C-alpha cells in the first residue's frame, strides 16, 4: 500500500490538469466527470490492495484473534465458559510445557553451532580442499529429503542395536541410547536436524563467498596468516551480512520445522525431554482433547515468535546498514 | 510460524466443512418420500480389502430383513474420523450408524447417540465387550471386535532355552527362573517397546490380574484406585525389576512398540511379548513369521496369593446409532446385522481380529487364538483403559523414568495418584 499510493497519486493531478482548466470555463458536466475520475483514481490503490488486505484480515488476523479469545475459555465440561487466565496458569504449572520452553532456549543456545558447521564447511570448499566439488553436491543432498524420511533413516541408524552403536562397539565405546536417554536425545534430534538442513545454509555461504574480495585473502596469505587467523580476521568480517542472514533463517528453521523429526524420532520422549511448544500444542489438541489449552499454548508460542522475529528483523537491518 | 499454524487451521476447517457438506448430501432422504429409504454408515473399516466380505455378509443379512432399504457405507480416513464426526454431530446431520472405538471415544460422544438396549437385548449373551460401549447403565453401540492384552510366548525360544513350551510359567517365581534361562540362551525374556510410553500400559493390563486381588481389580475398574496400596505399587516395582535384571530387550525406552517390539518377538529375539488381540501385534500378525503352532498364550503369572489371572480385554470397535436418525428401529437392525454371527465370522477370519461373538469357533487359527477365545468368558476389562488419557500420558513418562532409574517407585506412585485424582 505504502508503495502503490505514491506511484498513483502524483499521476492524478497531472492528468486532472486538463479538465481543471475546462471546469474554470464553466463546463459543469465535464467537471463532474473529472471529479469522478479523480475519485476513482484516488480509490484505485485501495481497491487494488483490498484483496490482499482482506485475505490477511479474514484468514490470518481474525482467526488469530479468535484463537487468542478461545484460549480464555475452558475445555470439556467448561466448554465455552470464560475461565480467565486458568489455561495460562495451567501451562505455567505444567512441567511438560516448561520443558518445551526450555528446549526452545536450548535451540537458541545451539544456534551458533548450527551456523558454524555450514560456515566452516563452506570455507573449506571455498579454499578448495581436495574433493571440494564432490562435497559441494553431497552436502546439499540431505536438504531435499523430507523430515519424515530423514527421521526414519536415523531411527534405524541410531537404534540401540543399530549400526552406529555396532560401530562404536567395535572401537570399544559402549552403546549410547541415542533416542532413549533423556540427557542425549534432544542433542541427537538437533544434530539430525542440522545434518538435514545445513545444505541450504551452505549454499548461501558459498554465494556469500563469491562476493568476497580475493585480494584480501591473497594479502593475508602473503603476510603468512594461519588458516584460523584468515577465517577470523578476513572471512568472518567480510561475510557478516551472510552470517546474519543464515543466523536468521536457521533460527526460523529450528523453531518451526522440528515437528516432523520429533514426531517420527522421539514422540516427545523419552520422559518428555524432547517436547517443543508445537508438539505440546498438537498433543493437547489432538490427543488430550484440550483445544482451549492448546490455544493458550499457541498464544504463548506466538508471543515468543513475535519477540524472536522482531529481534531477527533488527539483526538483519543492522547487518544491512553496515554496507 | 504462528501464521503457518493459522493457515493449516483454515485449511483443516475448509476440509472439515467440505467433509460435512458431503455428509449432508448423503443424509437420508426426508421422511415420507416413499417406501424406499436409505441408511448411511460411517466407519474407517469398510474400505479395507480385508473387511470386504464382512461388509458383504452384513449387507446381505440386512437385505433379507429390509429388502427396500439401501445401505451406503462411507469409509473415512481414521486419522480424521473423529474430527469429521464431530462436525457431523455439531450439525446433527450425517450418518445414521457410525463406528466407534470403545471406551473414551464413545463415552465422550453419547449425547449424539441413541441408547440401543431394547433393540440388542437378544445379542447381550452372544456378544462380549459391552462395557466399553456403555455409559451409566445404557448401551450405545454393539461390539464388533474385542481388544485386549494376552501374553504371547515363542515356543521355539522356550525350547532353545531348555524349557518346556507346553508348560509356560504359572507364577512369578517360575517366570523369573524361565527368564534367567532365556537370558542365558542369549535372548531377551520380554520384547518391550516403551518409546511412546505404551509398554507400561500393556504391562499393567497384561500382568495386573496376577498381582491385584479380584476385589482390588474390580475396585480399580470402578474408579476406586488406591495408588498407595502395596499391590499397585508392586506392579510398578516388577516393571522396574524385570528391566534391571536385563530381561527386556536393551534400549526399551527407544524401541517403538509399533512395530519394532513386535519385530523383536517375531524374529525370535525375545521369548515373551504382551501383545494385542485384534488389528495388529497379535496371533495372526505374528503368524507371518512364526507358524501358528509356535505361538502360545499364557495367563498372567500369579504374583499374589488369592489373585485370579484373567484375560484383560474390552470392546474394540462397535457400531452405534445416531440420535437424529429417522427410524431408530431400522438403524438398530442394521447394527444387529453388522454384529451377526455370520458377518463377524468373516471379519475374524479375514481381518485377523478377535470378534465379539463368543460362539465363533476359533480353533482352526492355532492354539493362540483358541486360548484367547476360551479366556474371553472369564475376562475382565483392562486396567489401563480405565485411566484418563492424561493419566496414561503421565504414566508413559513415569514408566520411562522408572526404567532409566531417574525416579523411584514411591515418587512415581505419588505423581500417578495426583494425576488420577485430578482427572
UniProtKB/TrEMBL annotation, chain A:
Region annotated Disordered sits at 1-37
Which compartment or compartments is the protein found in?
Cell membrane
Q: What's the main place this protein lives?
A: membrane
Family membership, please give it: Belongs to the binding-protein-dependent transport system permease family.
Annotated keywords: Cell membrane, Membrane, Transmembrane, Transmembrane helix, Transport
Is Endoplasmic reticulum among this UniProt entry's keywords?
A: no
Q: What is this protein called?
A: Sugar ABC transporter permease
From TrEMBL, chain B:
Q: Which UniProt keywords apply?
A: Signal, Transport
- The answer on whether this UniProt entry bears the keyword Secreted reads no
Which residues belong to the signal peptide in this entry? 1-23
Which SUPFAM superfamilies would you find in this protein's record?
A: Periplasmic binding protein-like II (SSF53850)
Is Membrane given among the entry's keywords? Answer: no
Q: Which domain of life is it from?
A: Bacteria
PROSITE patterns in the record: PROKAR_LIPOPROTEIN
Recorded family membership = Belongs to the bacterial solute-binding protein 1 family.
Q: What is this protein called?
A: Sugar ABC transporter substrate-binding protein
- Which taxonomic lineage is given here? Bacteria, Bacillati, Actinomycetota, Actinomycetes, Streptosporangiales
Amino acid at each position: 500500500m505504502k508503495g502503490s499510493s505514491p506511484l498513483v497519486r502524483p499521476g492524478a493531478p497531472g492528468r486532472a490538469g486538463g479538465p481543471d482548466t475546462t471546469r474554470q470555463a464553466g463546463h459543469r458536466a465535464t467537471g463532474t466527470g473529472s471529479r469522478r475520475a479523480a475519485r476513482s483514481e484516488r480509490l484505485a490503490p485501495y481497491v487494488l490492495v483490498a484483496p490482499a488486505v482482506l485475505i490477511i484480515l479474514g484468514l490470518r488476523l481474525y482467526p488469530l484473534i479468535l484463537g487468542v479469545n478461545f484460549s480464555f475459555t475452558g475445555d470439556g465440561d467448561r466448554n465455552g465458559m470464560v475461565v480467565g487466565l486458568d489455561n495460562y496458569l495451567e501451562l505455567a504449572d505444567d512441567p511438560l510445557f516448561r520443558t518445551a520452553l526450555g528446549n526452545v532456549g536450548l535451540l537458541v543456545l545451539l544456534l551458533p553451532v548450527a551456523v558454524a558447521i555450514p560456515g566452516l564447511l563452506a570455507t573449506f570448499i571455498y579454499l578448495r580442499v581436495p574433493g571440494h566439488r564432490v562435497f559441494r553436491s553431497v552436502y546439499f543432498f540431505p536438504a531435499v529429503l523430507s523430515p519424515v524420511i530423514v527421521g526414519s533413516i536415523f531411527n534405524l541408524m541410531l537404534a540401540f542395536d543399530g549400526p552406529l552403536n555396532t560401530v562404536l562397539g567395535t572401537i570399544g565405546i559402549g552403546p549410547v541410547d541415542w533416542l532413549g536417554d533423556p540427557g542425549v536425545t534432544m542433542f541427537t534430534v538437533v544434530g539430525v536436524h542440522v545434518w538435514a538442513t545445513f545444505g541450504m545454509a551452505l549454499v548461501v555461504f558459498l554465494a556469500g563467498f563469491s562476493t568476497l574480495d580475493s585480494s584480501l585473502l591473497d594479502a593475508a596469505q602473503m603476510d603468512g596468516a594461519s588458516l584460523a587467523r584468515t577465517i577470523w580476521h578476513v572471512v568472518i568480517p567480510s561475510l557478516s551480512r551472510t552470517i546474519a542472514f543464515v543466523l536468521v533463517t536457521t533460527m526460523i528453521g529450528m523453531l518451526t520445522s522440528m515437528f516432523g523429526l520429533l514426531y517420527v524420532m522421539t514422540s516427545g520422549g523419552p520422559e518428555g525431554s524432547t517436547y517443543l511448544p508445537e508438539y505440546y500444542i498438537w498433543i493437547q489438541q489432538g490427543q488430550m482433547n484440550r483445544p482451549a489449552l492448546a490455544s493458550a499454548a499457541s498464544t504463548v508460542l506466538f508471543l515468543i515468535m513475535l519477540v524472536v522475529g522482531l529481534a531477527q528483523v533488527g539483526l538483519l537491518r543492522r547487518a544491512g546498514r553496515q554496507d | 510460524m504462528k501464521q503457518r499454524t493459522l493457515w493449516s487451521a483454515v485449511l483443516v476447517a475448509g476440509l472439515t466443512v467440505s467433509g460435512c457438506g458431503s455428509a449432508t448430501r448423503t443424509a437420508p432422504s426426508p421422511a415420507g418420500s416413499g417406501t424406499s429409504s436409505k441408511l448411511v454408515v460411517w466407519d474407517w473399516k469398510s474400505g479395507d480389502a480385508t473387511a470386504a466380505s464382512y461388509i458383504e455378509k452384513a449387507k446381505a443379512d440386512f437385505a433379507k430383513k429390509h429388502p427396500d432399504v439401501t445401505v451406503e457405507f462411507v469409509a473415512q480416513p481414521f486419522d480424521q474420523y473423529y474430527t469429521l464426526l464431530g462436525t457431523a454431530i455439531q450439525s446433527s446431520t450425517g450418518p445414521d450408524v457410525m463406528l466407534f472405538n470403545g471406551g473414551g471415544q464413545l463415552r465422550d460422544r453419547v449425547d449424539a447417540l441413541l441408547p440401543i438396549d431394547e433393540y440388542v437385548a437378544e445379542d447381550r449373551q452372544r456378544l462380549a465387550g459391552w462395557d466399553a460401549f456403555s455409559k451409566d447403565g445404557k448401551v450405545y453401540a454393539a461390539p464388533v471386535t474385542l481388544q485386549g492384552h494376552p501374553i504371547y510366548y515363542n515356543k521355539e525360544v522356550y525350547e532353545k532355552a531348555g524349557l518346556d513350551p507346553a508348560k509356560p510359567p504359572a507364577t512369578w517365581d517360575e517366570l523369573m527362573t524361565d527368564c534367567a534361562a532365556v537370558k542365558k540362551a542369549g535372548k531377551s525374556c520380554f520384547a518391550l517397546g516403551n518409546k511412546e510410553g505404551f509398554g507400561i500400559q500393556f504391562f499393567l493390563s497384561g500382568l495386573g490380574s496376577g498381582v491385584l486381588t479380584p476385589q482390588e481389580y474390580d475396585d480399580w475398574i470402578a474408579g476406586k484406585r488406591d495408588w498407595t496400596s502395596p499391590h499397585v505399587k508392586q506392579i510398578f516395582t516388577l516393571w522396574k525389576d524385570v528391566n534391571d535384571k536385563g530381561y527386556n530387550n536393551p534400549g526399551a525406552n527407544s524401541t517403538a512398540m509399533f512395530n519394532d517390539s513386535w519385530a523383536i518377538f517375531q524374529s525370535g529375539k525375545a521369548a515373551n511379548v504382551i501383545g494385542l488381540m485384534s488389528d495388529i501385534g497379535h496371533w495372526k500378525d505374528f503368524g507371518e513369521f512364526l507358524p501358528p503352532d509356535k505361538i502360545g498364550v499364557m495367563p498372567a503369572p500369579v504374583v499374589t496369593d488369592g489373585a485370579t489371572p484373567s484375560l484383560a480385554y474390552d470392546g474394540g470397535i462397535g457400531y452405534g446409532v445416531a440420535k437424529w436418525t429417522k427410524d431408530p428401529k431400522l438403524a438398530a437392525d442394521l447394527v444387529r446385522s453388522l454384529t451377526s454371527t455370520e458377518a463377524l465370522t468373516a471379519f475374524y477370519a479375514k481381518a485377523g481380529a478377535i470378534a465379539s461373538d463368543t460362539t465363533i469357533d476359533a480353533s482352526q487359527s492355532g492354539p493362540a487364538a483358541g486360548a484367547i477365545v476360551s479366556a474371553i468368558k472369564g475376562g475382565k476389562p483392562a486396567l489401563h483403559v480405565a485411566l484418563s488419557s492424561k493419566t496414561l500420558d503421565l504414566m508413559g513418562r513415569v514408566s520411562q523414568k522408572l526404567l532409566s532409574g531417574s525416579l523411584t517407585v514411591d515418587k512415581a506412585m505419588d505423581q500417578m495418584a495426583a494425576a488420577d485424582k485430578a482427572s
